[in-house]
User: Fold this.
Amino acid sequence: MPAALRTSMGYMIGDYSGDVHEILGKNLNGHSTYNDLDLDRGDLVRVLRATSEDGEAFGVIHRSQATLIGEGLHEFPADSYRKSDPELHAWVKQSSSVLGHLDGVRADVIYDLGQAEKDANSWDKMMRYHALGAPVTGIPLVGDSIQRMVDVGTAQYLGEENTKVDKQVREDLVKHFDYGQKEMDSLLEQMARSKGLEPEELDMSPGEFEDNIQRLNEEWYQHGLKDSDLKMGER
Assistant:
């Protein structure tokens, strides 16, 4: 993809956040329900990978998904976090898969930039700015309380701000990437607490939050991460 198109493509993909969430989070047998897109998941992952050579583009795409995911989690009542709710399970599964796919793209970009002796740190700095706090036209507006939760989750996703992206860091990104899982963990915990759940309820086992909701996050994040690699031809 020509470099001049990457930023604009990132904002356009951000505008189609619902479709992207469906394509990366579900095994669609037809078109997306938001804008009737007929796009194969592998094709989308490869478009995301090409677009994400631009740090701003990736930051915008990630922020659009984090906002959509946070808004979706907020729609569920407290009982959905206490008792089995198939609709919440489905949303967690899909959202964790989305974040896994995006993490696969992020890790691959940073690794390849370093291999090509390009400035991975400049990419990372630009991505951070647009993933956390930069105003993005086209992304649906959400309430302040939800946005604060999204920002806290995104801070978990970004990890240590001052970490230099050197060779060892790049290799660790590929082998031990779990930022998106931490981000989803943070969002789930904040949402449950905002609904009135106490800390001991979150850790109760057997219990819905500990044994079902968090387990789904772990499993489907890893699924998305591995599937992203496969779609990019990395495995």
Summary: The chain is about 70% helix and 0% strand.
